Design the sequence.
């Protein structure tokens, strides 16, 4: 047999080996692609079309579903909130949504004035620092607007209403309780950002026994009391809905009238 020639058996063995190696490479590439796709489905990728359509749900019920679908996504509770400065210029920043305030008594003004929708609390909790610019801006104009975008479901909520800042000087006992609860619930690094005393750095806002110290003067509970919500959904056919808080009756002699929510579909 000439040098460099291979016998039929050798050629067959080489062909089988090549096809096996090629198949292994292709299978590895397919597995890698599948793994990437699986990770994408676990991230904030847009969800596949579901049976979306018109809805008769309030903004609060819709938001409950949106939050449930994205609860495990890191940063899903980051929202943008805009204020106006003394020159009527807009200022927008990202803050952390800390849940809804749900421990107010039934006769509290915030409860009577639309604090619940579909038996779910509506007043939205955040926190801020007394030294931040937004505190001064809220003193000029308390009406603010929050934007909350859910990339996984392609939904957007624009929530408008007055901002209330609750500090040490607020004499509302129920709101002070909510302020102290939020101070205790935020993480140690977040508490440290409100502390000025150098000896407290690294303590996580705790004393020598590990107990959370009282909130400092510059820690403010920031409440957004919604009066107008613009809901937009882009998945499965565009849909837009406006929810507004209204007052029962317009009789000037009726001091016990309560607020209620109404909603309607609008053209984008």
Sequence:
């Amino acid at each position: 047999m000439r040098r460099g020639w291979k016998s039929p058996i050798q050629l067959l063995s080489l062909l089988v080996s090549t096809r096996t190696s090629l198949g292994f490479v292709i299978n590895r590439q397919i597995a890698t692609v599948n793994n990437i796709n699986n990770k994408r489905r676990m991230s904030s990728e847009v969800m596949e079309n579901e049976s979306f359509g018109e809805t008769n749900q309030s903004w609060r019920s819709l938001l409950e579903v949106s939050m449930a679908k994205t609860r495990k996504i890191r940063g899903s509770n980051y929202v943008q909130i805009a204020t106006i400065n003394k020159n009527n210029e807009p200022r927008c920043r990202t803050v952390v949504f800390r849940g809804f305030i749900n421990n107010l008594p039934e006769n509290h003004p915030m409860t009577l004035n639309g604090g619940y929708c579909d038996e779910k609390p509506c007043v939205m909790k955040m926190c801020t620092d007394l030294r931040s610019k937004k505190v001064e801006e809220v003193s000029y104009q308390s009406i603010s607007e929050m934007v909350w975008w859910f990339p996984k479901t392609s939904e957007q909520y624009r929530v408008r209403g007055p901002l209330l800042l609750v500090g040490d000087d607020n004499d509302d006992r129920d709101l002070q309780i909510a302020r102290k609860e939020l101070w205790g619930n935020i993480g140690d690094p977040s508490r440290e950002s409100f502390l000025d005393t150098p000896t407290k750095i690294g303590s996580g806002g705790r004393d020598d026994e590990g107990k959370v110290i009282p909130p400092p003067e510059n820690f403010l509970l920031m409440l957004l009391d919604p009066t107008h919500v613009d809901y937009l959904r882009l998945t499965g056919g565009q849909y837009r809905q406006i929810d507004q808080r209204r007052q029962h009756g317009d009789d000037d002699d009726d001091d016990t009238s309560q607020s209620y929510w109404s909603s309607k579909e609008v053209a984008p």
